[in-house]
Amino acid sequence: MKKKCMVYKYSDENIGLIDYRMLPPKIVSPHDEPSMELIQRDVDEIKVSKNEELSFFTPSIVSIQLNVAKPALLRCGVLSKELKALAEKQKKSLETKEHEQLIKDSLVLYEYLECAQTAIMFSFTAIETFFNLSIPEDYEYKRTSKLKTEIFNKSQIERSISWKEKLTKIIPEIYNISDFSLEPFWGHLHQLIQIRNDIVHQKSSEDTEIVQKLIKLKVPIVCFSAIELIEHIYIKASENESIPECCERFPIVSADNIWLIKKTSYLKPVNDDLT
User: In this structure, are 25 and 158 located in the same domain?
Assistant: First the structure.
């Protein structure tokens, strides 16, 4: 499939971070000029009406999901302290349980619950998206037991393999990295998946229970584990000589670590503005 792209002269300015939500650029060398190095940024197009199209630099969906989660998890840290102060105030004064004050206190709690669930759901979704984007089109995963060996293709892995199995078996194999179950963020990752499941599969009788769990949870730390996981894979995989092609869509998670893929490409000018 042919894609449009913008190609720039190689320079520090052109490889710099523009926005975390944008895919990192690639270093490309034309087939007919292999010694030349250029910077390439992919461009996508969508129809916004019957006769009009919108061009834009290809986004990183993972980075966008993390970007949605980030302000919510930071806000949770602020609101958590505020809720503790309100609880202390209610304990000391009966007046705080009057109608008007109780409304104000409730609204603070509601905002916390909104932010907590936003941060949790989008942090988890970013990991899921990252896992699925990481699987090469021709990749096969073999699951062997005493009785049989099952083989899963990319589509089957996305639909049928659990989050935990992707995390512990498939992703380390794809990126050729060692097990990271001893990393500091490991426990927080499992808290993230557990609270996400509690939210998604909540029963009508558990309203207060889920509120209690969200209040006790250290939301910023638990949700930040999604970024820590991706950045850990990013750093470890970049040390390998063989990097899968799917890494071209690796999100930018740190301004200090921007992974630039280098490849040879057939470049054909489209017009003066988009080449």
Answer: no
